[in-house]
Structures are given as structure tokens and as C-alpha cells.
């Protein structure tokens, strides 16, 4: 497996080196990034390391979206409400200045204490949240603001009211809006990238993932309950479906891994924010000046290529 | 009659787990209890003649029922899933795949191809629940995307029939990535000016409802089909909410505005014919 991953990255590297058919785009950034990541891939994470990432991704002290907003954005103005019936506090939207440019930010927000967790619904959005997200995306599109999304949710909320107001459909439409946007978009998984609720705001030109974040089709507990018929087998499930950043990179699901401070992002918020800010800044610089049509075509081509066939 | 004053000293039947209800034969109607032979159900499009319950319908039978005879030309039939994660739960994913192929005669949970419905050209993408619960992995996503391309290239509408529990867990994150993948494919179909008509059969849940199935220009549902992002069991367990009797069913989705129409299976072909005509699909000389 590790050799496989290395080979695949090396192959991508060699392709990128000799490629001149993507007109007007800067490839040097890609090349550098892949080279750096090759080093990191040399050792594939063990089952224990995967589980460690699951624990760190859900660590109660892990920085959340608003912790990064505080450190990365100036003059953040939060947008509330889906213009239809409610404001979902599990998904934060707003406009702010990031290193000299105005951007629109979207992110799931968990809570620190019981009161806030209840208010934020543990970061599990209702359709109202995704409708707010779509409204903010369209705002970004109208005014040419780049879009940054921070993904950190156990999943979209599985409740009766959420289903009745169209949870599945709103997740589908949120992705469709992202596929249409003519502005540069960067997504970063900063904690739990839980299933449809995560991918709803992650159909971006560049998808990043923090070193100890997880991105998965189902929670380890959910997978264990279904396939092992025992939620207690979560460790086995996580080891089997490999939700860690290194594996997501290897499978081409993400474009880059964002390093975290030693011991995890919860150890040093400022340093975690600086590292995240640098990665986002770099991604936005790379996307600057790519013609709109090509930006969109490349975004779709990237997602269209995901999957492994025999 | 047992004597109410007698003391029951046996412990077995008190503490033993309750016996699971006997498994019903697949041809016994869950709606009214009538039992049918296979040929009786097949002759009636697998709809219960007594109560109208819609039994699951296999992809090939569905295509036979919808497409004009001899018009269906299958595409991408040779695609097979790889096992990128070397996934092993209680059994190996490769083994499950091989078993599903033998049991269903299909390469994966979706069959795509060009067809004519009531004399009008279209592309069909039909799912089969019998293949690993209709779960969507790399092959299903790829086939759907190719169906979009094929429809766009020919300038014809795409009709999808979904029957799926959602994303295929054994393909991990790549299964989740089939959501954005199919969404991007629908975007390109729409940009080519072609409509997507989405038919939701029982069940259309999870990743299917959160991707292409919900993006139909027109969304039709079969009577009684379950259409929810989270299944009723998950909702009940996580939230401890009392579920309404019609939770997630096509009928409640119609009431709540998520579906355009509920179409009983015997009327589906004619309804699709009407829609194809309205969307301007050319009539082929018979």
C-alpha cells in the first residue's frame, strides 16, 4: 500500500511536470505541493494512528470554525438566516477580509459547553443551514468574492423536521450551486468531515484537510453498527474505511494536507490558524487569474475523475 | 386457558430474547398478505393486484417495462468495481461483489443505455436494489456520469430510476465522492440543454437523495417509496423522536413539496412518454 501510494503520487508528479495543455494555469504550485506530500506519504498511517486521528478530529478542545475566523479574518460580518424560515447556528456564514481580499466564509460550528452545543446542534445542520450556505455562495458569486468553507460536522442532522424540510435535496442542491460557481473556492476539513453534511459544502476547486481531520462516508460507529452489527467495533471500522488525511490524499479526494502543531490543533490555536491560513492563501493564489470557464471545467473534471474502477 | 393464580416458575421464556418474527416470503405482500407466484407478479409489473403494493423491481425488468421493444442498447456494461481500500468487514468486499454479480447477473447496481420510450429517444439509468442494496460506489457513479454524457451528446433527456440505500460503505470516502461526481455530471447535462427526469423507487435514501436523484427537473416517485436522507431507524435511535406513520414515504414527500407526482408503476411508461414529448424529445419513425 505505501509503495502504491508513492507510485501514484510520483506518476501524478511526472504527469504534471510534462503537462502543457492546461493553458494559462500555474502548475509550479502543484508540483511543489505534491513533492512535499510525497515525503509525508512514505510512512502509511497504522490502524492506531488512524484511530488517533478520529479522536483528535473530535477532540473537545479542537479549534472550531469561529476560532479560525477570529484568527484569520478581519472585520468578519456574520450573515444570518436562510431567507425562508430560520437561522441555523450549526452552519456559520459571513463576509470578511482574508489577507487583503474580501472572501465569503462558510463553516460548520460545534459548541464548547452544553448550552452552546445545544444551540449549535453539535455542528449538525438542518436544511435551513444548507439553504443559508447556498445564499452565501450565490452572494460570493455575484460579487466575485472567493469562497472558503470549513468542514467540521458529524453529519447532517437526522431528525424528523430536518427530513420534512428536505435534508437530502438541500444537500444535493448545495453541491450543485458549488459546481456552478464562477469564483475560486477552497474547502478545508478541519475536524469531522461527516458524509453528505460535509460534502454539501466541499465541492471546491481546492479541497484541503488538516493532518488529524477525518473525512468519511459514515461515522466509524455507524459503519460498525451496520457491517459488524456492533457499534463497539468502531476502531475496526475506521481501520477498514480509512478516513484519515493521508489516505484521502492518496485516493485523490483531497489536494493537500494542512499540517497541525505537534500533538494536534488543540495544542496551539494560533499556530494551527497560521498553518491553515498559509495553506488557504497559497490555494487562493494558485486559483487567481484562472479564467472562469476553465476554473469551473477543471473543478467538475476533478470530481468527475474520482472513483476507482477495476 | 392458563390458571391466573398459578405461579410461573420457568425462566427460559421470560428472559430469552423474543423470537424474531418469521421471515415472510418475498412474494407475500407486506400490504395485504396475499401470496403470488413469480409469474403472477411479473405479469402485473410486480404490483399487488389486491392492494397496489409495489414490490421491488429488478433493473432489467424495469427497462423491459419502460423501453419500446428492441430499442434498448446497453452502455458501459463492462465496468466493475475495484477494491481500493482492501475492505474487509465480516467478509471481504471482493467476495461480496462476486457474490452479488452471480446472484443478480449484473456488473454493479446500475444499468445504463440508450432507449426509446413511447417512440421517443432518451437515455436510461436504472438502479437495481438487489445488487448490494443498490449502493452507490465508483461504478454506479461512473455509469451515471456516462449516462449524462451520452444523453448530452445525443441531445436527449435522461431518465433515472433510483432504488438504493445510499453510498457503498465498502468504498469508503470514494463512495461519498460519487455524490459530488454525479452532481457535476447533472450540471453538465443541464448545460447541454437536456433534462433529467428522476424516478424514485423504493427506497431512495442517503447519498442518492443527497445527489443526482434530487436534482431532477421533474421528480416522480412510486407509491409507498421511502425517500429520506436518514433512514427511519437512524432517526428514531439518534433523536428518540416519535416518527409519523408516513415518515419519509413518497406520499408525505408529495405533501411537503419534495416530489412533483406519485406515479403508480402501470402508468409510469405513459407518464414518461408525456414528459419526453413536453421536453421536446423527437419522435422516432416507428
Low-pLDDT stretches of chain B are none
What is the rounded distance between the termini of chain A? 17 Å
* Strand tally of chain B: 7
Q: Count the helices of chain B. How many?
A: 10
CATH class group of the largest domain in chain A: Alpha Beta
Beta strand % of chain A: 15-25%
SSE arrangement of chain B, N to C: HHHEHEEHEHHEEHHEH
Reported for the largest beta sheet of chain B, the result is: 7 strands, mixed
Question: Averaging pLDDT over every residue of chain A, what do you get?
Answer: 90
For the record, the CATH architecture of the largest domain in chain A stands as: Alpha-Beta Complex
What general form of chain A does the structure show? Answer: globular
Mean pLDDT of chain B: 92
Number of strands of chain A: 8
Alpha plus pi helix count of chain A: 14
Taking strands numbered 1, 2, ... along the chain, how are they ordered across the largest sheet of chain B? 1-2-3-4-5-6-7
- The assembly state of the depicted protein chains is heterodimer
Model description:
Chain A is an alpha/beta fold and 310 residues long. Chain A has 2 domains: 1-19 and 26-44, no CATH class; 45-303, 2-enoyl-CoA Hydratase, Chain A, domain 1 (Alpha-Beta Complex). Helix content of chain A is 49%, strand content 16%. In chain A, helix 3 crosses helix 11. The longest helix of chain A has 19 residues, at 269-287. Chain B is of the alpha/beta class and 286 residues long. Chain B has 2 domains: 22-55, no CATH class; 56-278, 2-enoyl-CoA Hydratase, Chain A, domain 1 (Alpha-Beta Complex), CATH 3.90.226.10. Chain B has 10 helices and 7 strands. Chain B has a 7-stranded mixed beta sheet, with helices on both faces. In chain B, a hairpin with a 2-residue loop joins strand 2 (110-117) and strand 3. The longest helix of chain B has 17 residues, at 138-154. Chains A and B meet through helix 7, helix 8, helix 9, helix 10 and helix 11 of A and helix 5, helix 6, helix 7 and helix 8 of B.
Amino acid at each position: 500500500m505505501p509503495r502504491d501510494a508513492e507510485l501514484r503520487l510520483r506518476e501524478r508528479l511526472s504527469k504534471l511536470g510534462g503537462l502543457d495543455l492546461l493553458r494559462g494555469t500555474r502548475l509550479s504550485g502543484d508540483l511543489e505541493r505534491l513533492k512535499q506530500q510525497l515525503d509525508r506519504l512514505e510512512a502509511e498511517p497504522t490502524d492506531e494512528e488512524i484511530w488517533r486521528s478520529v479522536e483528535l478530529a473530535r477532540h473537545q478542545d479542537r479549534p472550531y470554525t469561529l476560532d479560525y475566523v477570529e484568527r484569520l479574518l478581519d472585520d468578519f460580518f456574520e450573515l444570518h438566516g436562510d431567507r425562508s424560515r430560520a437561522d441555523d447556528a450549526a452552519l456559520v456564514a459571513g463576509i470578511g477580509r482574508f489577507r487583503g481580499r474580501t472572501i465569503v466564509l462558510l463553516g460548520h460550528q460545534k459548541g464548547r459547553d452544553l448550552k452552546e452545543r445545544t444551540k449549535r446542534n453539535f455542528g449538525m445542520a438542518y436544511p435551513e443551514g444548507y439553504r443559508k450556505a447556498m445564499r452565501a455562495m450565490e452572494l460570493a458569486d455575484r460579487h466575485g468574492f472567493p469562497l472558503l468553507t470549513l468542514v467540521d460536522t458529524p453529519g447532517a442532522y437526522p431528525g424528523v423536521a430536518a427530513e420534512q424540510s428536505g435534508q437530502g435535496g438541500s444537500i444535493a442542491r448545495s453541491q450543485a450551486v458549488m459546481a456552478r460557481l464562477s469564483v475560486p473556492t477552497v474547502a478545508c476539513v478541519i475536524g469531522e468531515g461527516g458524509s453528505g453534511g460535509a460534502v454539501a459544502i466541499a465541492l471546491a476547486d481546492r479541497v484541503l484537510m488538516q493532518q488529524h481531520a477525518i473525512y468519511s462516508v459514515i461515522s466509524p460507529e455507524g459503519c460498525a453498527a451496520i457491517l459488524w452489527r456492533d457499534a463497539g467495533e468502531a476502531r475496526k471500522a475506521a481501520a477498514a474505511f480509512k478516513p484519515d488525511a493521508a489516505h484521502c490524499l492518496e485516493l485523490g479526494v483531497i489536494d493537500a494536507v494542512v499540517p497541525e502543531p505537534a500533538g494536534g490543533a488543540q495544542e496551539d490555536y494560533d499556530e494551527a490558524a497560521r498553518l491553515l491560513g498559509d495553506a488557504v492563501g497559497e490555494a487562493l493564489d494558485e486559483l487567481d487569474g484562472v479564467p472562469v470557464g476553465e476554473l469551473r471545467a477543471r473543478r467538475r473534471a476533478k470530481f468527475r475523475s474520482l472513483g476507482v474502477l477495476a | 386457558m392458563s390458571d391466573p393464580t398459578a405461579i410461573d416458575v420457568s425462566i427460559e421464556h421470560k428472559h430469552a430474547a423474543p423470537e424474531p418474527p418469521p421471515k415472510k416470503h418475498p412474494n407475500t405482500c407486506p400490504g395485504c398478505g396475499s401470496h403470488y407466484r413469480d409469474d403472477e407478479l411479473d405479469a402485473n409489473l410486480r404490483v399487488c393486484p389486491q392492494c397496489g403494493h409495489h414490490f421491488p423491481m429488478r433493473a432489467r425488468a424495469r427497462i423491459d417495462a419502460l423501453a419500446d421493444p428492441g430499442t434498448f442498447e446497453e452502455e458501459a456494461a463492462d465496468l466493475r468495481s475495484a477494491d481500493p481500500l482492501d475492505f474487509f468487514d465480516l467478509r471481504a468486499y471482493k467476495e461480496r461483489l462476486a457474490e452479488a454479480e452471480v446472484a443478480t447477473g449484473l456488473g454493479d447496481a446500475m444499468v445504463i443505455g440508450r432507449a426509446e420510450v413511447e417512440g421517443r429517444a432518451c437515455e436510461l439509468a436504472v438502479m437495481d436494489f438487489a445488487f448490494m442494496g443498490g449502493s452507490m460506489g465508483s461504478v454506479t457513479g461512473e455509469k451515471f456520469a456516462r449516462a449524462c454524457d451520452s444523453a448530452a451528446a445525443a441531445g436527449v433527456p435522461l431518465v433515472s430510476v433510483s432504488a438504493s440505500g445510499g453510498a457503498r460503505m465498502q468504498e469508503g470516502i470514494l463512495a461519498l465522492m460519487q455524490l459530488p461526481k454525479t452532481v457535476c455530471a447533472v450540471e453538465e447535462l443541464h448545460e447541454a440543454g437536456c433534462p433529467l427526469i428522476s424516478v424514485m423507487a423504493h427506497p431512495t435514501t442517503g447519498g442518492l437523495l443527497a445527489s443526482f436523484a434530487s436534482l431532477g427537473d421533474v421528480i416522480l416517485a412510486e407509491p409507498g417509496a421511502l425517500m429520506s436522507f436518514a433512514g427511519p431507524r437512524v432517526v428514531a435511535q439518534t433523536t428518540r423522536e416519535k416518527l409519523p406513520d408516513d415518515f419519509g414515504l413518497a406520499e408525505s414527500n408529495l405533501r411537503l413539496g419534495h416530489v412533483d407526482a406519485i406515479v403508480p408503476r402501470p402508468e409510469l411508461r405513459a407518464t414518461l412518454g408525456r414528459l419526453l414529448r413536453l421536453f421536446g424529445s423527437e419522435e422516432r419513425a416507428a
